[in-house]
Amino acid sequence: MPALALMKTSFQRNRVYVLNHMLNNLGSFLFGYIIAMVWLSLLGNTPEGREMVTYVMVNQAMVGLVMFLPRGCFIPQKIREGTIVFDLVRPQNILSLAFFEVSGHVAYNFVFRSLPIFLLGFLVLGVDFPRLSQLFPFFLALANGFVIAFFLNYLVGLWSMHFVDFTGAQNLYYFTTATFSGYMMPPEFFPGFVRTLVEFSPFGCTHFWPSAIYLGRVPLFQALWIQWSWIGILWVTCWLLTRRLVQRIPIQGG
Amino acid sequence: MITVKGIFKTYHVYQGKGWKRRKKEIHALENMDFQVTRGECLGYIGPNGAGKSTTVKILTGIMVPDSGEVISNGYCPWKERKRYVKNIGVVFGQKTQMWWDLPVADSYALLGSLYRVEPRKARKQIDFLVDALQLSEIFHQPVRQLSLGQRMRAEVGAALVHDPDLLFLDEPSIGLDVVSQHNLQNFLKQLNQSGKTIFLTTHNLKEIETLCTRAMVINQGKIIFHGTIPNLKKMTELPVMVKVQLFENPTPEGMEQIRALSGEYDREQGIVAIPAGHEKGVAEITRILMHHLPVEDLRVEEPGIEEIVKAIYLQELSRNRVV
Amino acid sequence: MGVFLTLVRASWRAQTHYRFNFFFTTVSSGLAMFSDFLLIWWLLMNFPSLGGWKLEEVACIFGIVNCSWGLFRVIGVGLKNFQEFMLSGRFDVLLVRPASTVLQLLLHRFDLKSLGGVVQGLGIGFVALTSMGLLGQLWPWFLLLCLLGAIITLEINIILAAIAFWTIRNEEIVVLAFYATRTASEYPAHIFGPFLKNLLTFAIPLATIGYFPLGYLLGKMQNPVALLSPFLAAGGLFPISFVIWKMGMHHYSSTGT
Q: How high is the ipTM of this complex?
């Protein structure tokens, strides 16, 4: 199974640095804690306030799964080092190689980043567990959110195939996802048209929809049709662009 | 095994800055034709920027030529890429296809699955590679801890986990010390004798002499020689040079001797260069020089790739002029 | 001064070589930075105040903190990526040169794109001051606080970089001890409860960049020490960062890792 083997390798690559990551989790938790305290200050220690604390901390635990993926899905790094040639001589295409490599990375993040951060949130801030019936819908929406985040990051990788320097594209990705994913607050707090953008753009699919389902605020099917539509659109886009760009990859050193 | 017909490849390079930059065409390959027979080890030589890498990239399906045909191992590399690459192995000298933080063993296991090698077959092949490439001590070490020589050995093994019939090696011995080079060459020779076809790009003439029966020379996107190694040597007939470092300028009598041997003296560096020819061999020249000149150091230089290519290129030009 | 100008010119040329890319990177990095403020702005539009601070007042803190962060980054790239210097062995190159290592790190490269952050911080602060009708009165203070903030940021980052002399890798520590606390210092510190507030006041005194002096200037605090706190922090951190850096260098050169 090439897919599983790729995921396993990518998972193990991270285990070398597990101690560094634990320290990093503390920092990551602190970011969530800051926003949670802002909410508690705004809404007070009310049911609404506590709901927002849960919303924020669930999103914070999710950042390693749906926001901070490997830059450009490792592609810019491979272009810079020239090792992209090896991906090009494999009997798989770059899109699926990247997907399973990033999946392994994210599986690692789930165990060694998301769970510890969530646990800290539970211990320090008393984050609520979801109702049992929401558990499966949540993980389904979360998985969809990851796939969409993968495609968005992959687009950054495609950019580096064409222009080599990808800082601009990475910045643009960071801006759109940080602003419109709703990781800090749900759509109802955004002004007018931005609310629609958070609800219906691919960015909201990564953070807002999964955590809204966690809180049991929205029915699963509503999240699913938006997420699956975006997965379809992005998949086709990435696939077509890969076909076009792969033959013109700038290969360093030769 | 490989048939190449009329390959053209042109790059566009942008020159100048900002908005005013200009597009410039570079002809990397022009009308390239050649064949590689099954079981052969072909040495591919040329100066930097001659189009070597472009050729290898086209043959491995990484790059698409502007026009022309390639049939390699029964497939067109870029049209039937996935099926084609299952049976080729690739080593690119200074790049690694293993995973930096992981043991060699893990990289091999992953490569085995990527090529969907049957587990039992993969284990057998990996055992063979560990044994033949002497990897047992380093097999469970992370790649980043390996020395260059060890890494290169593991690298060659990584390209062979799926036991391909056709091998592309791009500068496999770059940066290796003499002993490691020798070991690697022995291993490649074994492989070749067991029936693998090898396409070897290198700067190292010795390597080509030990491994290849035929060689191909490319310059500025054109093949300027394709034939056996003895023919390549005969065709160029470049002399071996005797080079001597002097510790002071030669006497007028010494200069006389240099001229008599049709040599040259570089006054700035204090180096005398004498071509060894049919009349006087290296031993005789050395004796004369030691006798008449204030010699500090002496060495004998074989012609390098650049000189051979230049010689063939000039020969080609003069022949065309005669015709 | 001549060296300084040459360096700026070289950085400018290197970074503007590909004009489209430079333009795109600068605009997008400005946008990426702006997203932090955008979210705070949109959020606070829904509420009358955050812990007694109005939107404009929070924006003032945000402006100062980010302006000083930007000023630091223009010269502090070397310190910011100090782990890279240690891992690649480039730090040893600095050691053999006859000049202060900190100075060499600072002059290593000017990151002109960070000027975007400075402009943004100033812009947000000035718009906020204008809408409160306090611009004429407070702009000199605002500029002075940005400058002091840059010095405090620099000193904290020297201390955090020095940790790498012992640990080689310090990225995670910087994320925890600086990036997270820097984000916290964009808000009125009392909303975080006593532990984090004390941490931001006495241990990693980032609250003295904007929160305390602005609290005094905007009439929320009566104690003038609040206004003096950035001077105290900058002055107090100077010898500490100096000594820790020296100790680190000593440790590094005696263990010879």
A: 0.88
